[in-house]
Each structure stands twice: as structure tokens, then as C-alpha cells.
Amino acid sequence: MKTKLLLSTSVFLFFTFFGNPLAQSKKFNLDKDLLLVHFDCKTDVDDVQTMAGLSTLLKNKTYQNLNYHAVTGTYGIQEGPYVPPNTLLERAFKGHWSDAHTDIDKAVKEVLQKVKITLSQNGDVWIADAGQSDFSAKLIAAVKTEMKNINSKIRFHVVQHSDWNESVTAEKALNYVKTHTDYNKIPDGNALNNGTPGFRDPNYKELKKQVKDAELLDIWDHAIAISNQYNGKDDRYLNEAIAAGGLDFSDLSEVCWILDIQDINNIQDFFYRMLN
To answer: Most buried pick, 22, 23, 50, 201, via CB within 10 A?
Structure first.
């Protein structure tokens, strides 16, 4: 425990005095770029709360017109049952989402059309792999088939924060994404003071004090209900932070990195900055 504390303190001091060396060299362009957020939803329920976190970010006036699309069911080779989030996705994103769990080929086609529009208008595509990179590999391969003049290494930016997610991505798919995109591995969003926001806190109980918007609060209530319904059930992963009544939307650290707001510290700071 002392070793971890010293390491965390050292990392925090490094970023304080020398800046964040993990910041991206190219910035997301709100006027023409596309944000894709890929959720595996298998078997951890943190993806469900990340959807609510993304919905919270979209309430901020800076991001109200963000060009985005969410995809569920983008899991890799891990075993275990799926966490069905479709009712939440529709509440949160109202049509700005696709279901790769039900029909992966249809999902690729739906996202491909959005990607082609962005690329044809000289925008870049940014992918937050809030899970594995298997779906991203299929999507990029489809783009390269239909738009042979596109340099995917320059126009696609993939962000991953989890060692475990990489370990359960099919090796061929992970290698493909790393080879054909600007692939960025950032520090884990489950931890604090490592250069990205820490969005996992078993002790956070201030949600209803922070969220006053009725529609957004309904989204969070629904996300928490789904989380509690499936957390640790039927051989799913038991998320202890959520089981304790706290929150875990750690995958949103990737979106914050993409949007260059990775200096957000924790859940409290996130809600304050997005909703005030």
C-alpha cells in the first residue's frame, strides 16, 4: 500500500511540474471530426455507467453539437454473458448508436456510412475503445476497402486505457489496429493521479446533489438500475465499486483524453466541470 501511495504521489508531482507527456499531438476538431465510443458490455457493468457519463458530457454547452456515435457489443475473445444496455442507449443517445451484439455486420455498415461522411469532409475519426479493439479492426478494414486513398494511420486515432482490454482482444485484430491507426495507450481510468481522470470510486454518493437535470438524472438512475441488476450475476464480473454503491465510468477517461480534458481529476471534478 505504501509503495502504491509513493508511486501515485511521484506521478502526480511529475505532471504538476513537467506537464503531461501523454497529451495527444493532434487535437480533436469539434467542427469536423467524429467521435466513436465502442462499448463491449461483457461482462463488467462499468460500460453502462460510462454511457451515462458520456451523456453527462454531452449536456455541457461545449459538447452539445459533438459529432459522435456509440456502438455496443464490441467485445473481443473474453468469455461470459453480455450486459444488455439498449434501453439506456436509446434514452441517452436517441438513435446515435448501433448494436454490434445483435448484428455486427449491420453495425459496421451503419458506422461506416458516418465515417465516410467525416473522412470525405476532411475530418478525422477518433475511437474510444471502451472495451476491446475487435470491432475497430473490422470497421477500419471496411473503410480501407471502400476508400483506398485514405491513410488510416493519419486519419484514425484509437485510444485504449486498459491492459485487460488489450489482453482479450483477438491478437490479429489488436495488431491490425496498432498497425493501421494512430494507436494511443493511456493510463488506466480506474486510478487517480496518473495523467488521466480517475472515474472509479466506491465511496462516491453525491450523484443526486450534482445532477439536477431531470432527463440526465433519469439516465443515471436507469444506468445504475441496469448495473445493479447484472453486476456479478450469472458469472459476470463483480464490480466492487458499484456493488458498494459508488460509481465506475472509468472508460470515459478515453473520451476525456480525446477531447483534451484529461486534466479532470475525479468524479466530483467531472460533474462540477460538466454541469456548471
So the answer is: 50
